[in-house]
């Protein structure tokens, strides 16, 4: 059996960071995801899901430092069932996500994004936000600056008007 969830959405509240007695960092937050579809009568409908999630370790500290309510993120993890007894003695449960990979999707200036480069002159560039994998931290040497060999002309890219809802993934 395989339990994997991938969600893209916006944080519903600021990240709540705490440390366990062992020193392990734990962050909790919530994400809102949207789905737009046409119902049987052809009317455009929106469906919003609110899901809590948990992030552990260094990723929890990074999330607390750079994310805030409204930040756009991609979460990859596993679905977890939480069960408890409330103060009135009722058994309660809910599903949440235990995050294994976290990627910040905001661009610079949007919610004070982290790690993005400005767009190339006259064009568009994808955000270069770091991805945080909790299972396998990356340890790489810093990149050495490259010396340009010759001046390259700036290529003008056409403007493309794409609605986020038109993207199939």
UniProtKB/TrEMBL annotation:
Entry keyword set: DNA damage, DNA recombination, DNA repair, DNA replication, DNA-binding
Gene3D superfamilies: Nucleic acid-binding proteins
Sequence motif: Important for interaction with partner proteins, positions: 164-169
Biased composition (Low complexity): 113-124, 134-155
Source species, domain of life: Bacteria
Pfam families found in the cross-reference section: SSB (PF00436)
GO MF annotation, one: DNA binding
Region described as Disordered: spans on this chain: 84-169
Subunit structure: Homotetramer.
Main function: Plays an important role in DNA replication, recombination and repair. Binds to ssDNA and to an array of partner proteins to recruit them to their sites of action during DNA metabolism.
Protein name per its UniProtKB record: Single-stranded DNA-binding protein
Native source organism of the sequence: Hydrogenimonas cancrithermarum
Gene this chain is encoded by: ssb
């Amino acid at each position: 059996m395989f339990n994997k969830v991938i969600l893209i959405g916006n944080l519903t509240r600021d990240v709540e960071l705490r440390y366990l007695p062992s020193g392990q960092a734990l962050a909790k937050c919530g994400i809102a995801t949207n789905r737009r579809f046409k119902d049987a009568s052809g009317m455009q409908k929106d469906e919003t899901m609110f899901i809590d999630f948990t992030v552990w370790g260094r990723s929890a500290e990074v999330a607390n430092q750079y994310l805030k309510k409204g930040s756009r993120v991609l979460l990859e993890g596993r679905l977890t069932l939480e069960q408890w007894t409330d103060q009135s003695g009722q058994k309660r449960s809910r599903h949440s996500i235990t995050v294994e990979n976290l990627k910040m999707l905001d661009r610079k200036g949007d919610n004070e994004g982290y790690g993005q480069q400005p767009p190339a002159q006259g064009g568009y560039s994808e955000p270069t936000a770091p991805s945080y994998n909790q299972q396998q931290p990356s340890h790489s040497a810093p990149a050495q600056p490259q010396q340009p060999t010759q001046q390259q002309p700036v290529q003008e890219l056409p403007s493309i008007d794409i609605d986020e809802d038109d993207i199939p993934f």
